[in-house]
Amino acid sequence: MSETPLLDQIPDGPWPSFVKEIKKTAELQDKAVAEGKDIKMPGSARALLKQIEISYKDKKTHWKHGGIVSVVGYGGGVIGRYSDLEDIVPEVHHFHTIRVNMPSGWFYSTKALRQLMDVWEKWGSGITNFHGSTGDIILLGTKSEYLQPCFEDMMKLDPPFDIGGSGSDLRTPSACMGPALCEFACYDTLQICHDITMEFQNELHRPMWPYKFKFKFSGCPNDCVAAKARADCAVIGTWKGEIQIDQDAVKEYAEWMDIEEEVVKLCPTGAISYDAEKKEIKIDNSNCVRCMHCINKMPKALKPGKERGATVLIGAKAPFVEGAIIGWVAVPFIPADELFDTLCEIAEKIWEWWDDIGKFRERVGELIWRRGIGEFLNVIGQEADVRMIKHPRTNPFMFFKEEELVESEVVKKLKERGMKWRSFEYEGEEI
Amino acid sequence: MVEITYTEEDKQKVLEKLDQKLWKIKDLAKVLRMNKKVVQKIVMDLIEEGKAAYWSSGSTTYYATPRYIEEYEKRRAEG
């Protein structure tokens, strides 16, 4: 009989299962031990499953958090976790998480990944999460005494890996793939993410603020790293002036695309017009809100304007104390070549202010709500600007009426496979 | 950038407090009526010297002496 009958049911569902993956890791760990490899935490993956099974039965967690877990000189990057079932699953009594600073844009070579995994197979459970919500590589499960040697081995790799941020510090900055893969990038997200990470090593590794602070860099308003929703300081690429139009390419699109229906009518400010006879489009750039829809639909014909840079939005966060906050525009436009210096200057002013008057576990966005955008603008030395609006004049997020919803092909296929939508009972009423 | 300086006496005051409980820099500066940046610098230097250490609650990081943290951990383990 299986030791984990409840967990064994999970991989039967339609989604990828963590149980299946941990079981695979357990087998790999057993194999490595049989081959005589130096494995410091044998049996930990299997023990983890056992502990989760017990939690499912007991309907409570058996993890405890906190403690003295770090590496020499660092105050963050390791999240201490202990099991309260030491006698039953001693293999996971210590099961600390290490956050590893990922490269800008999450570009890896297989060599780099293999090296890192070899280190983790030796010093930890072998279980990873690529990636955590901040973007770090997450190494799940090691003992206190293995943290330092594991860290030292990571530092000796080629390329070396460093630990990321955690606690009340600068969290590991993250960036979209930017100009490496995307022609819409209005600045070099990869370079600036790297430069900011290097510039603020002290802030990244030594937590001393009221709470966390995140930088996220998106190369264009598509905002592929969701910076405007999640970063205290979101740096989003944008442009000044006119969207570049290649009318010959527009004509090519017109061969197979209904430009009027798919582009013109979906422009949120009605800034585009289309001459069906000439097969040419015109854009009233003064009304463009940088929603990116037209550029996304016709990338060969339309490109962001030539004068490129970034907008800095401040104060976004995912829910915790006060609920979700979308970032406010703090600096409408910084030319790409001035971005690093300006960002450093602004960040230092914000940290000084926030660290002085911020309450315990209060994010910058919450502090701005408490003290007002006026005070904040004084702090960063910006004049109020019409673009620093609390609510946009046109909602950039799309909401649909029930009758407008069309079932997606994915949902149809899942239904055909027998998947049922979950419903929940609340006081006898289905909701 | 202005270099932050402090006296040996200031350092001693900080160290004494760190041996009494887990602290956040801001609170420590308030209690000692000292400039936060100076306290920050002293604590960082003490960490470098091994006379102070970090302790994490899981989401928040505190500072104390290794002796205090060891004692605190012992109490925590006993429940």
Question: What does this 3D model show about the protein?
Answer:
The complex is a heterodimer of chains A (431) and B (79). Chain A has helices at residues 5-8, 18-34, 44-58, 110-123, 144-155, 189-199, 201-205, 227-230, 247-256, 259-262, 293-297, 339-357, 364-371, 373-380, 409-416; strands at 63-65, 78-79, 81-83, 97-100, 127-130, 137-140, 174-175, 215-218, 233-240, 244-245, 272-275, 280-283, 302-303, 307-314, 328-335, 425-426, 429-430. With 431 residues, chain A is α+β, with helices and mostly antiparallel strands. Chain A has a 5-stranded mixed β-sheet. Mean pLDDT of chain A is 91; it is low at 423-431. Chain B is mainly alpha-helical. In chain B, a hairpin with a 4-residue loop joins strand 1 (53-56) and strand 2. The interface between A and B is medium-sized, with 26 and 20 residues.
Please outline what is shown here.
The complex is a heterodimer of chains A (431) and B (79). By secondary structure, chain A is an alpha+beta fold.
**Total beta strand runs of chain B:** 2
Spell the H/E element sequence of chain B: HHHEEH
State the shape of chain A: globular
Q: Count the strands of chain A?
A: 17
Radius of gyration of chain A: 25 Å
- What is the residue-averaged pLDDT of chain A? 91
Class inferred from helices and paired strands of chain B: mainly alpha
Distance between the termini of chain A: 37 Å
Query: Portion of residues in helices of chain A?
Result: 25-40%
Write a concise keyword list for the protein shown above:
heterodimer, A: alpha+beta, 5-stranded mixed beta sheet, 15 helices, B: 79 residues, mainly alpha, two-stranded antiparallel sheet, 4 helices, elongated
